[in-house]
Each structure stands twice: as C-alpha cells, then as structure tokens.
Write a structure and sequence with these properties.
8 strands, 366 residues, alpha+beta, globular, five-stranded mixed sheet, three-stranded antiparallel sheet
Length: 366
C-alpha cells in the first residue's frame, strides 16, 4: 500500500514511543532484550513512513524474542493494555498477521482480543486472502459479538476497498459474500460500527451500485440507526445524482425551488486561500419537500480540461414557500489526492441531483 502520511503522523512511532514499548515489554517479560529491540527498531527510522514504522516494531519484536508464537502471544496479551496509544497497538495484530497465518484458531482469538485496544482491520486481511470462507465464517460470528470493536472488525476487515490495504478481489466481485455480516449490523447501536457498515456499502457502490440499492430498498428505515447507515452508504450515489438513491432518501422528486443571490467570493484567489459559497434557496412548492443539496467544483486539470468533484452540503425538509440560507467555505489547497492548476473553476449548486445554478472563481498561477 502507498502511504503518504504527514511527518506528524509517523512521529507516533518516534524514539520515545519505541522506548515506551521496550519498557512495557520488559515489565511483562523481564528477559526481554530491550537494547537489541531498540537498535533494530531505530535503524533508518527517519526514512520510514508511519505504516513502515508500525511493521518495524512487529519485526523487531520477532527478531529479539526467542520464544515460539504461542509463548510470544502470551507476552503480547499482557503488553496490550499497557500501551499508551491505540494507534500504536496496531503493531500487535500486525505481528499476528506476520507470524501466525499457520495457526488459525489461535490467531483469530488474538485478533479478536487485540482489536479492542485499537483495530485489527489490516491484520485480518491476509487471513481472508489465504482462506476466505473460513475467515468470513469467523467474521460472521464476530458481527454478533457484544463488543463494538469486535463487531466493527467484522465489517471493516472485510471491506472490499479498505484504504491503506489491498483490495479483496473475491469480495469486490461478489458482495453477497458479506451480506449476512452487513445484515447483522444494519441497525447497530454503536456509531463506530455504523460508520464501518456505511463505508463497506459505499465501497460496494463503486462496483455493484444496484446490489446496494436493492439491499437498502428492502430495509425498514424507521429505525434511525438503519436510516443513518443508508444515508451514508449512498453518499457517492447521491453525489452522482442517482435517482434510486435519492428516492430512498425521500428526495427523488424534482426539486421545486429557486436559487437567489448565488455568490462565490472572492472571485480571484491564490492557492492556499479559501472561497465562500453562499445562496438562498426558496421553495416554490405547495407542500413540504425533502431536499438534498450539494455543490460541485469543476477543477481545472493539467491538460486544460476540468474534472467535477461533488461535495455534500445538507439534507433537510423545506416547507411550502420557505427559504433557507446556505453558506459553506472551502480551502483551496494542495492535497495528496488533488493537485490544483490555475484557471477559472466553475461551482455548481445541485438540488436533488439536478444542477440549478452556477458561478465561478479564478485560481491564479502560483
């Protein structure tokens, strides 16, 4: 996986944190070679990304601990609650994925335990890759667990397009493989879990939008937890103006509105500055209507053409004859996922998937 994390993020695994790990490991395993661990872990540390540093901790433990896999796990079980960062604890499931693939039952128990201290979403994937049916059966059981961290792992670990990890090609090709897991979690009381379920379903919309739409159309959205998942799962389709997705959200009808005083200011900016989008939305309908309001920016690309990016604004019910003032600021700055080029950028207001008004701003050359 590609990791372009900012220096501040990779400093989670700095020298002080490595010393903390060594100290706590020594507390639970007095024979631990702390000096050898630190020498191994710190070699070339400055050049390593955050995920490479996480892997290095796991590798360094393996290099200096002379115990077998089950014996090492016993020490790592004792170490987990002593660590001072949930993100840092990710090296524990990484150890399981690296050295426990041939000890399935023991490793599943370890991942279930370690995920409660941080997350084991990356570490479960090598097991899915090696034996998909057997590992999915475990995740199915975990989707019914009392612990929300374990339930979340069932959904997050089996996402077909999990960020920072490889894709699960079989799951990507056949979303039915995880359908029972998602069904078990579709009304989960934990927001932590619901976010994962929504992200899992949003992943699927990239390859099988009709499958997700049919699934959610069969759900009862009277439950607010289920309705929340549906709304966030369909976000990409809603941005695309998909009629079925908008209908599920109650906004499939053509919006009866007028847009007044659309403004994008300032009209000319430099890279790194902000634009402000504002407008008034007036209902022309005789009854209340559900509206999904988004905006899109046509970003200028290197070859001179443009590419549209849609952003969420708000979803709400607008009464007959009512007006709603809407304002949003956006920072126009370089991102690892977006490079900006000078030129005029169109900004569009989308209501229930339809473009109703446009304005523009100009980005100057650096």
């Amino acid at each position: 996986m590609t990791d372009q994390s900012a220096p501040a993020l990779k400093e989670i695994f700095n020298v002080e944190r490595l010393q903390h790990i060594a100290s706590e490991m020594s507390a639970v395993y007095p024979a631990f070679d702390a000096k050898g661990f630190l020498k191994h872990a710190q070699a070339g540390l400055a050049e390593l990304s955050v995920l490479q540093r996480m892997a290095r901790v796991s590798e360094s433990l393996h290099a200096v601990v002379p115990l077998d896999y089950p014996q090492t796990l016993e020490r790592l079980y004792a170490l987990a609650p002593r660590l001072n960062s949930s993100f840092v604890s990710l090296f524990l499931p990484h150890y399981v994925a690296s050295y426990g693939l041939d000890d399935f039952e023991r490793s599943m128990a370890a991942l279930k335990f370690f995920t409660t201290f941080g997350s084991a979403e990356f570490a479960i994937r090598p097991f899915l890759l090696r034996d998909l049916p057997r590992t999915l059966a475990v995740l199915q059981t975990w989707s019914l667990d009392a612990n929300d961290h374990v339930r979340r792992l069932a959904s997050e670990g089996s996402r077909p397009r999990l960020p920072w990890s490889f894709r699960l090609a079989e799951v990507q090709a056949n979303p039915e493989l995880c359908a029972s897991i998602l069904d078990n979690l579709k009304a989960d009381p934990s927001l932590y879990v619901r976010k994962s379920v929504a992200n899992h379903l949003n992943d699927i919309t990239k390859d099988h939008p009709d499958w997700v739409l049919t699934l959610i159309e069969g759900w009862s959205l009277d439950n607010p937890h289920t309705a929340w998942i549906a709304r966030h799962a369909l976000r990409s389709l809603i941005k695309q103006g998909n009629t079925r997705a908008l209908t599920i959200m109650g906004a499939g009808a053509k919006a009866e509105v007028k847009i007044h005083q659309l403004s994008v200011t300032p009209a000319v900016i430099n890279l790194g500055e902000r634009i402000s989008l504002s407008f008034n939305l007036e209902s022309t309908a005789d009854t209340a209507q559900k509206l999904v309001v988004d905006y899109a920016i046509d970003y200028v690309k290197s070859a001179g053409h443009s590419a549209k990016k849609v952003f969420k604004l708000k979803a709400f019910t607008l009464g007959a004859g009512e007006q709603q003032s809407i304002r949003r600021e956006q920072h126009i700055r370089e991102l690892t996922t977006r490079k900006h080029y000078p030129g005029k950028h169109a900004v569009h207001v989308l209501v229930n998937g339809e473009k109703l008004a446009s304005a523009e701003f100009e980005l100057l050359k650096p």
